[in-house]
Amino acid sequence: MAKLLYGDKIAEEVLEELAKQKSKRRLKLAVFQVGESAVSAQYIAEKGKAAERVGVQFELVSFPKGTSQKKVREAVQEAGKSSRVSGIVVQLPLPVKFNTQEILDAIPLEKDVDVLSSRAFGLFALGKLPILPPTAHAIMLLLEYYNIAWQGKHIVVVGAGRLVGLPAILSLVMNKATFTSVNEKTKSLAAFTRQADILISGVGKPKLIKSSMLKKEVVVVDAGTSLDRGTTTGDVDFNSAVEKVRAITPVPGGVGPLTIACLLSNLFAVEKTLL
Asked: What residue numbers does the annotated binding site for NADP(+) cover?
């Protein structure tokens, strides 16, 4: 039976420390959402609860599915100019017809707590940003907390999206880790995943990775989130993998809560370093 790597316990510690911090002003996090998604709605609600715990004002700006890209971008720009807003998050995914990066680039550097604008992400890639993308930071904290050494290990990252895979890959590059990057369309995916000492997945496709695709003693960090028959699930077939691998993050309760804590940590950090 695998060891379960719970992120919520670490998140509690991070939030407790943030609640003790004194800021120059009342911080406010504005979250923009377009359309409806059960997974996004759940994640937004969790962000709101965590923000309240650390004394941060939380505002959800929700647009119906048919809203134009121009209107959403202008709203994000207005929040960027507002002295009352400390941090901005654009909940992904946006509608397919949108130019997502154009919307993200409307977020000012000093308010980009998700590190998703071109400017913020570019500085992060160069090692010149004082904050880290929340999910990549959460993964590193999780491994550190459970004393899972990654130096000299073969890490396989499944997916290269802007929220999980790409930031994780760049973090590994910066830390001189040995890794392989694959995705859901990689030919003979199992041949790569079976080589992993540590597997990080963030595709968002239920049960993409079966236990037969994993070797024993692998550590699985499942950062994928999606709905499978109404149940929140990860990329890895948890029920079968938990009987085989060395350690695994549950979904929910693994990377997700810690990602939110890291997001709020960024909100406090940008006030001190970028404003």
From this structure: 159-161, 225
